[in-house]
From TrEMBL:
This is CinA. InterPro entries: CinA-like_C, CinA_C. Pfam families: CinA. The gene is cinA. It comes from the Archaea. Residues 9-166 form the CinA C-terminal domain. It comes from Halapricum desulfuricans.
């Protein structure tokens, strides 16, 4: 999948694939502040598969809105593989949908650390297989994007949509 495709092109493909399979989606995004949801809802037909978009932006919202464990946040931080995986599973399970996708990141210009510099992002995709199949799964990828705040956020939005498309392709 080409992450240079526009968010609209990616969202159109997602609408078609999810619609064909009669599957549903929930989104939880932090650093993109609703950008993934905006990209999905810009394409007609989103209401057929998109259940909800959560935007828990700080630690308290991650705990109280998405149910991310305090221990996960204390141990790994909000921008981490562990927190992003939990966030994708929370989106999936709280919404009772087929797919949950989540992103976290440091878009800048500040907020980065030596361990998590500006431009760091995590994208997680959680799949809900049929009950008792044992096939439900969550995959997380880490990325490092260059550019200013807007460029980093745009790249994370495109990467989130791309990772979801790739995951859907693997499950079929």
């Amino acid at each position: 999948m080409d992450t240079h495709d526009s968010p609209r092109e990616l969202a159109t493909r997602l609408r078609d694939r999810l619609g064909e399979a009669d599957e549903t989606l929930a989104v939880a995004e932090t650093c993109t502040g609703g950008g993934v949801g905006a990209a999905l809802t810009a394409v007609p037909g989103a209401s057929e598969y998109l259940d909800r978009v959560l935007v828990p932006y700080d630690y308290d919202a991650l705990r109280t809105v998405a149910g991310i464990n305090r221990e996960t946040l204390d141990r790994h931080g909000a921008v981490s593989e562990a927190a992003t995986a939990e966030l994708a599973r929370a989106a999936r399970d709280l919404s009772d949908v087929t797919w949950g996708i989540a992103n976290t990141g440091v878009a800048g210009p500040g907020g980065g650390t030596a361990e998590t510099p500006v431009g760091t992002a995590f994208v997680a995709v959680a799949y809900a297989a049929p009950w008792e199949s044992g096939d439900s799964a969550t995959a997380v990828e880490q990325y490092r994007f260059d550019g200013d705040r807007q460029a980093v956020r745009e790249r994370i939005i495109r990467q989130s949509l791309t990772d979801l498309l790739d995951a859907i392709g693997r499950e079929r």
